[in-house]
């Protein structure tokens, strides 16, 4: 009884921190647009987008341990579905975002069935996902029109601008998009938090640690991996739709580019894959780093990619658990030390 009594305040404190700290962080983030100039706000939008991409990717790549190099496929599907529904049918991008996310999720489920039934793992699965994204890019580059519906081909699609119209996700300025992305990040992080304390999350962690052992213990490995892919693809498709509204232009060479696959992966790996806040931490580090490198090496194209490559190698080699994983591991050792 004494042990329980002594442990209760600490447990209560940890619960308060786990609930209160995210609220404080999101409140601080919500206040940012009031104190920054347009350039910093633009960086903030990119940061939130990459944090969201990293969190979406991490559901499959971190929690389930299925590293993907092709999440741009879902990003591009979400962008194109929303844009085509708006341009050709006049449907609001708010609706298009949901439809795009659902179609991306359905496509991800089909890909999951094909790849996981073939028992693709590790780098074979990663390369298969990369190939899927590249095939979609090639398809949309060569599709100019289908059944009277303009696809755009290699020139892409220019989304219409007819003045400020919040009902169609068109705003006067960038601030509303910042808050949309912040809200979306809160949703995906909240979803990951729910996964982390659920039986489904425990199954995913078991699969990540040892897929064969998890299967031997009765875990439905195939079903869990398909579900992780569907959820991950859903969230990634949603952000693709918002991307189209932010820039009012989409092109297959951009939205299906490996850049959006690698950015999500990088944020998760650097921040700590398989953790609730790891991808957000990764985005907080990598986004300013990218802007600083572009500023100091503006005359040398591709330097930011070289720096990202070096960062990835360093973390994979020396800190594979990422920064958040390192902190959590250290905290775990500290908790065990008194015993």
Automatic annotation (TrEMBL):
MF (Gene Ontology): branched-chain amino acid transmembrane transporter activity
Entry's transmembrane regions: 16-33, 39-60, 67-87, 93-116, 123-141, 177-195, 226-250, 262-286, 307-333
Keywords: Cell membrane, Membrane, Transmembrane, Transmembrane helix
Places the protein is found: Cell membrane
InterPro entries: ABC_transp_permease, LivM-like
Membrane topology: Multi-pass membrane protein
Superkingdom of origin: Bacteria
Pfam families the UniProt entry points to: BPD_transp_2
GO cellular component terms attached to this protein's record: plasma membrane
Name of the protein: ABC transporter permease
């Amino acid at each position: 009884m004494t042990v329980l009594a002594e442990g209760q305040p600490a447990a209560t404190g940890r619960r308060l921190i786990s609930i209160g700290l995210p609220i404080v962080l999101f409140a601080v983030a919500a206040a940012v647009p009031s104190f920054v100039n347009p350039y910093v706000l633009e960086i903030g939008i990119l940061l939130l987008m990459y944090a969201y991409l990293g969190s979406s990717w991490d559901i499959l790549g971190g929690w389930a341990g299925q590293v993907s190099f092709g999440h741009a496929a879902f990003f591009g599907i979400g962008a194109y579905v929303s844009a085509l529904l708006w341009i050709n049918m006049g449907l609001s991008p708010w609706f298009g975002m949901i439809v795009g996310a659902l179609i991306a999720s359905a496509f991800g489920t089909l890909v999951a069935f094909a790849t996981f039934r073939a028992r693709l793992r590790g780098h074979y699965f990663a390369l298969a996902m990369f190939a899927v994204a590249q095939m979609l890019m090639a398809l949309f580059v060569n599709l100019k029109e289908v059944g009277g519906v303009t696809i755009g081909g290699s020139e892409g699609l220019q989304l219409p601008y007819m003045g400020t119209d919040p009902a169609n996700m068109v705003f006067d300025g960038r601030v509303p998009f910042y808050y949309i992305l912040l809200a979306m990040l809160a949703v995906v992080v909240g979803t990951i938090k729910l996964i982390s304390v659920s039986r489904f999350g425990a199954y995913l962690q078991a699969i990540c640690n040892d897929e064969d052992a998890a299967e031997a213990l009765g875990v439905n490995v195939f079903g869990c991996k398909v579900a992780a892919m569907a959820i991950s693809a859903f969230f990634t498709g949603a952000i693709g739709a918002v991307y189209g509204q932010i820039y009012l232009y989409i092109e297959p060479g951009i939205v299906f580019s490996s850049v959006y696959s690698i950015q999500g992966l990088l944020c998760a790996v650097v921040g700590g894959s398989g953790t609730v806040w790891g991808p957000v931490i990764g985005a907080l580090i990598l986004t300013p780093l990218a802007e600083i490198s572009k500023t100091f090496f503006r005359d040398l194209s591709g330097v930011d990619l070289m720096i990202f490559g070096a960062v990835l190698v360093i973390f994979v080699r020396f800190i594979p658990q990422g920064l958040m994983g390192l902190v959590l591991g250290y905290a775990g050792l500290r908790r065990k030390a008194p015993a």
